[in-house]
Write a structure and sequence with these properties.
Blueprint: H1 12-16, E1 31-33, E2 41-46, E3 61-66, E4 72-79, E5 82-87, E6 93-97, E7 102-106, E8 112-117, E9 121-127, E10 133-139, E11 142-149, E12 155-162, E13 165-170, E14 176-180, E15 185-189, E16 195-199, E17 215-220, E18 226-230, E19 235-239, E20 245-249, E21 260-262, E22 268-272, E23 277-281, E24 287-291, E25 297-303
Antiparallel strand pairs: 1-24, 2-3, 2-25, 3-4, 5-6, 6-7, 7-8, 9-10, 10-11, 11-12, 13-14, 14-15, 15-16, 17-18, 18-19, 19-20, 21-22, 22-23, 23-24
């Protein structure tokens, strides 16, 4: 995520007209498959598509949905600094917009349907089973926060102040897992806010915005381990419950990456931001899928 100012916000009326721009960057996206078969779609959130061409302002942020053959079935270029997204069952999207400090509900043509103002830069987004949204974020003059909002925008739960929380995940036990990139910690809190698990020292000695951040992404895995992406170290590590690493990948493959998702097949889907690509990596660290030509990919998900 990069520093934002209100001067760069796309006006709501542009979305109300259902504006959709389909354009190509100077470098065409490149993808390949090598022993990787799938029937799922891939959702990619590219915060700053123009960075690969040296222009952080143009084109605006991109929401890209690829079919199983890597052909775009949706390619929205109207969003200013999108940072996370969820495809809803009805085909619409929830999207975090940094410049709006809000979660927008949009149709597949970009039309704005509703919005929830979250009070800062929204770094991560989770749609909960009860229809609420869980958001981790911060702002230049606002301490970091994790907040749960009802569909009408009402605040129903929060933990704050934090520093630079980049990711929050509501777990099946009702607790919340948080990656705080400003304190080099990943920790789990109960609904009452009590800390029940934590791992410290997961980042540079002195975390800084934006390439020297600590943990920017975390996911609790089915085996009880926790997958953590540490941007400032170009490191992704799977931690056992005792905090010891059981698997990791580093700068030999990734550079200043953001999200890392463990897939059902055991591979890991990574937003390799420094290399302008999203990759799928096997447990033995072979790249079996790659989609390049991106500017600044922040999130990527496989959707069955």
């Amino acid at each position: 995520m990069t520093h934002a100012t209100r001067d760069d916000v796309v006006e709501t009326s542009e979305f109300d007209r259902g504006c959709i721009l389909r354009l190509h960057l100077q470098e065409e996206p490149v993808s390949h498959l090598d022993g990787c078969s799938r029937v799922s779609k891939t959702l990619i959130v590219d915060e700053i598509p123009g960075r690969i061409a040296g222009d952080d302002d143009n084109p605006p942020g991109r929401l890209l949905l690829l079919d199983s053959s890597d052909q775009p079935v949706l390619d929205l270029h109207t969003l200013k600094m999108p940072y996370d997204a969820v495809l809803k069952p009805d085909g619409t999207f929830l999207v975090n917009l940094i410049r709006e400090r809000a979660v927008w509900h949009i149709a597949d043509d970009g039309e704005l349907l509703a919005r929830i103002h979250v009070g800062g830069y929204p770094c991560s987004l989770q749609l909960l089973d009860n229809g609420h949204v869980l958001v981790a974020g911060w702002d230049d003059d606002v301490p970091g926060f994790v907040r749960e909002f009802s569909p009408n925008g009402g605040l129903v739960w929060s933990i704050e102040p934090l520093r630079w929380p980049w990711k929050a995940e509501r777990l099946s036990n009702g607790n919340t897992l948080i990656a705080d990139a400003g304190t080099n910690r990943v920790f789990e809190v109960s609904p009452s806010g009590d800390e029940v698990w934590a791992v410290d020292n997961l980042g540079p000695t002195t975390p800084e915005l934006f390439d020297a951040l600590g943990p920017v992404y975390c996911r609790r895995l089915a085996n009880g381990n926790t997958l953590v992406s540490i941007r400032g170290l170009s490191r992704i590590v799977e931690l056992a419950p005792d905090g010891e690493p059981v698997w990791e990948v580093g700068a030999e493959i990734v550079s200043n990456q953001y999200a890392a998702e463990r897939l059902p097949n055991g591979n890991t889907l990574i937003c390799d931001t420094g290399h302008h690509r999203v990759i799928e990596l096997t447990p033995d660290k072979r790249i079996v899928w790659e989609y390049g030509g991106l500017g600044y990919p922040a999130k990527a998900y496989r959707i069955e």
